[in-house]
Design a protein that fits this description.
Blueprint (H helix, E strand, L loop, with lengths): L1 H12 L9 H10 L4 H18 L20 H6 L2 H12 L5 H12 L8 H14 L4 H16 L4
């Protein structure tokens, strides 16, 4: 399913092509690209749930706004998000790329993935997908995009 999401994001969303694609046509395109029907269906459902945030149909879990509070991850969340992933989420909060709401949206969307293995690079793409779909997060999306692509392009000395 994650491969389908990545393909969709890179092909339709990130390239700024026409994002108003008929679901039937999209399913046909994905099938032609060699994706499994179940993965396609799961990915489209995942995107529909993400769209619910965009349309305000679902509110993220409300957390304490106290800056001294600490997010405690559930066992399920820890299975998906290893220490590197959780540390990266904390870093993004500290540099104000993510706020409490967008962090919770990201965590919810990660736990909704059916992938058994989930790496930090995967998390970065999920963050981009969430920020892209949430109104008012354009600056955060741009910052995250710069973090993602600058880190991949830079050479450490």
């Amino acid at each position: 399913m994650f491969d389908v999401l990545m393909y969709l994001f890179e092909t339709y969303i990130h390239t700024e092509t026409d994002t108003q694609v008929d679901q039937e046509r999209l399913t046909d395109d994905l099938t032609d690209a060699g994706f499994d029907q179940e993965d396609i269906s799961n990915a489209l459902q995942w995107l529909e749930k993400l769209a619910d945030y965009q349309e305000g149909l679902v509110e993220p879990i409300q957390m304490s706004g106290d800056p001294l509070s600490m997010r405690i991850y559930t066992a399920e969340e820890c299975q998906k998000l290893d220490a590197d992933c959780r540390g990266f989420l904390l870093f993004l909060e500290q540099v104000q790329v993510l706020n409490l709401d967008t962090r919770e949206m990201v965590i919810e969307r990660v736990t909704a993935l059916d992938s058994l293995e989930f790496a930090l690079d995967d998390l970065k793409w999920v963050i981009l997908m969430v920020l892209f779909n949430i109104p008012g997060c354009e600056d955060a999306y741009q910052q995250m995009e710069e973090l993602l692509f600058d880190a991949n392009d830079s050479i450490l000395h």
